[in-house]
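Appendix C. Worked example: ATP-binding protein
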Amino acid sequence: MVLRGELSELGRLAAAVEDFVSRNGLPADLAFRFNLCLDELVTNIVSHGYGDGDDDAGEHEIRVRLEIEGQELRAEIEDDAGVFDPFTDAPPPDLHGDLESRRVGGLGVFLVGRMMDRASHRHEGRRNLTLLAKRIG
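Step 2, the predicted output written as structure tokens:
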């Protein structure tokens, strides 16, 4: 699906993921996992890749593709934000101490890595391509 570069598109994305999982008879926890991870990554693209309050963020397109390949459910996110690999460029999360004293940043991407079997990023031309994969069952 093609999303406008706006946070308001997250609801439409979540509904599409749930529909895909349901139509293909996949376990419901896959919809939960993918929605959580896609929400985190798309939010980061819109909020940081397109700039906070960027008036033309909605002019950007984010493409999300879901597919079943063998025994894996895969999602690919394609965007035109600046070059940024969330899995190597994001700061490592502060996992110690209480929530109020922790440094902000990195925890969402950390959780994406924990929830998926594979998560990778590459840059081609002017596009970022992020792949998520989780074994089915």
